[in-house]
């Protein structure tokens, strides 16, 4: 299995800075607003289901705009499970998921490694002006729809037997313990995102610095996921998560179970319920969770020794607080990526 070194990616970004961004602002660039229809809220309330108007998208994550904490908006995986157990259970790759433990070989010595994770979670809520019975979720559980959600990410069908956790013994820790990936009516998908803006040149510089070494950084993020319409019995349990009293009419889920670098897992979940005050309207509550490998974020001391790196920590790039962030997809940072994904889904349901 190829070795990837995600931290080196961000070192390269900083080294590329003097050549590529002499006029870059010293303060982190703020991501552009997706739409004036999107309203940031401190929390989603069950009352939203009755008062929200079609066309408006409520969005919430845990970031505090005034915070000076570089990891603002992230929570340690174990702390997430304790503080928000229902959310963690729903958005983890499978029920009972724990941080990975796996053997790792270095310089001929194999040791057991425990990998710690930090999680970013976003929620969205919007209303569609039609009843749940008029929404065919199977129309959104396919490659064509994924391509429309984020056109810069390319997708292709993946045979379940070729899923990396199934095929590669070194990735066995990412296998579901209860069933095979894509073995419950879901589709397996392999996706590729080529880094945008200054990031590819940063990767090239990093690989040149590692000349003669086996350490190579990928100029892309590739990931494998399971996309499925949730069975009614499984979807029904999410009313406790949304805290809306009407019965769940359906759910859609994409679980990213394998990523080549930076992330360990991700999940997009959408839960449909009739509006409490109007059965001819559908309230859709969406969630997006992305788990980042903590060792990507822990490279602070070595960055501090290089002046140009002090304002370009990996966490700044990942959280969208760097002048290197660009576009509207993954290179923009995980908060912008999550927001855009939720808004694109809302627009698709309204249009269809």
- How many DSSP H or I helices? 13
Mean pLDDT: 84
Sheet having the most strands:
10 strands, mixed
Poorly predicted runs of 5 or more residues: 1-33
Q: Strand content of the residues, in percent?
A: 25-35%
Classify the helix fraction into a percent range.
25-40%
What is the chains' assembly state? Answer: single chain
List the helices and strands and how they pair.
Elements: H1 6-20, E1 38-40, H2 48-51, E2 57-61, E3 74-76, H3 77-83, H4 85-91, E4 101-106, E5 109-114, E6 117-128, H5 143-149, E7 153-157, H6 164-167, E8 187-194, H7 199-209, E9 220-229, H8 232-236, H9 239-242, E10 250-259, E11 263-275, E12 278-293, H10 294-297, H11 301-304, H12 314-318, H13 334-351
Parallel strand pairs: 1-2
Antiparallel strand pairs: 2-6, 3-6, 4-5, 6-12, 7-8, 8-9, 9-10, 10-11, 11-12
Helix pairs in contact: 1-7, 3-4
Describe this structure in words.
This protein has 352 residues and is an alpha+beta fold. The protein has helices at 6-20, 48-51, 77-83, 85-91, 143-149, 164-167, 199-209, 232-236, 239-242, 294-297, 301-304, 314-318, 334-351, and strands spanning 38-40, 57-61, 74-76, 101-106, 109-114, 117-128, 153-157, 187-194, 220-229, 250-259, 263-275, 278-293. Strands 1, 2, 3, 6, 7, 8, 9, 10, 11 and 12 form a 10-stranded mixed sheet that branches. The chain has a two-stranded antiparallel ribbon with strand order 4-5. Helix 1 packs across helix 7 (199-209) and helix 3 (77-83) crosses helix 4 (85-91). The longest helix has 18 residues, at 334-351. The chain is globular, with a radius of gyration of 20 Å. It starts with 5 loop residues before the first helix and ends with a helix.
């Amino acid at each position: 299995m190829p070795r990837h070194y995600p931290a080196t990616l961000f070192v390269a970004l900083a080294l590329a800075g003097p050549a590529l961004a002499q006029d870059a602002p010293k303060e982190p660039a703020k991501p552009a607003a997706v739409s004036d229809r999107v309203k940031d809220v401190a929390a989603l309330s069950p009352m939203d289901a009755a008062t929200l108007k079609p066309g408006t998208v409520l969005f919430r994550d845990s970031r505090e705009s005034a915070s000076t904490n570089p990891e603002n908006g992230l929570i340690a995986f174990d702390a997430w499970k304790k503080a928000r157990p229902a959310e963690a259970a729903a958005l983890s790759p499978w029920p009972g998921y724990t941080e990975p433990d796996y053997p790792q070989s270095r310089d001929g010595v194999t040791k057991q490694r425990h990998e710690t994770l930090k999680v970013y979670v976003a929620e969205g809520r919007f209303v569609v002006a039609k009843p749940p019975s008029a929404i065919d979720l199977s129309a959104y559980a396919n490659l064509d729809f994924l391509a429309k959600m984020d056109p810069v990410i390319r997708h292709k069908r993946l045979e379940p037997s070729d899923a990396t956790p199934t095929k590669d013994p070194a990735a066995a820790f990412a296998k579901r313990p209860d069933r095979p990936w894509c073995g419950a009516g879901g589709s397996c998908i392999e996706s590729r995102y080529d880094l945008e803006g200054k990031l590819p040149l940063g990767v090239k510089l990093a690989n040149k610095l590692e000349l003669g070494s086996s350490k190579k950084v990928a100029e892309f993020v590739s990931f494998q996921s399971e996309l499925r319409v949730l069975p009614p019995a499984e979807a029904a349990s999410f009313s406790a998560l949304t805290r809306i009293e009407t019965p769940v009419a359906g759910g859609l889920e994409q679980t990213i179970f394998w990523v080549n670098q930076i992330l360990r897992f991700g999940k997009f979940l959408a839960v449909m319920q009739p509006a409490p005050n109007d059965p001819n309207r559908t309230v859709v509550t969406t969630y997006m969770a992305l788990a980042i490998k903590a060792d990507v974020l822990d490279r602070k001391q070595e960055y501090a020794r290089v002046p140009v790196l002090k304002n370009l920590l990996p966490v700044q790039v990942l959280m969208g607080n760097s002048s290197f962030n660009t576009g509207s997809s993954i290179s923009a940072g995980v908060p912008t990526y999550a927001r855009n994904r939720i808004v694109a889904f809302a627009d698709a349901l309204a249009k269809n």
